[in-house]
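Hallway conversation turned thread

IA: we were arguing at lunch whether anyone had actually written out Protein yippee-like end to end. Turns out nobody had. So, for the record, here is the sequence (137 residues) and right after it the structure tokens. Reply here if something looks off.
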Amino acid sequence: PELSEEPPAEMVKMTKSKTFQAYLPNCHRTYSCIHCRAHLANHDELISKATQFFFMQSFQGSQGRAYLFNSVVNVGCGPAEERVLLTGLHAVADIYCENCKTTLGWKYEHAFESSQKYKEGKFIIELAHMIKDNGWE
């Protein structure tokens, strides 16, 4: 029997593979979503432990320890809302992985206390939702 090169139209299924919006360079240590491996942040964007020590706090998410980043990639941002956190009242917006839609942490939109202003515009990602990739020894 002769084989057709194209299946009938009713059998054609279009699939779209998901790709990340941004890939971080392979030469840098990165953090990725533990659920889908989408890149989230470059290690250079992690607020240093010295900064955390200076402000006398470590970061805590709803599911345990968290890291504070200057910038992140491949995340969406929900609406801002006021929340009372361990360090006082803040306006924060939940952030989620653009690829798998898992809530990862939040973005600090506004800090009401002057000692917390350094957090504005920065991102919290909980360790429970990320994995280290590229160049970690």
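OS: looked through it. The chain has one domain: 30-133.
IA: good, adding that to the notes. Helices lie at 49-54.
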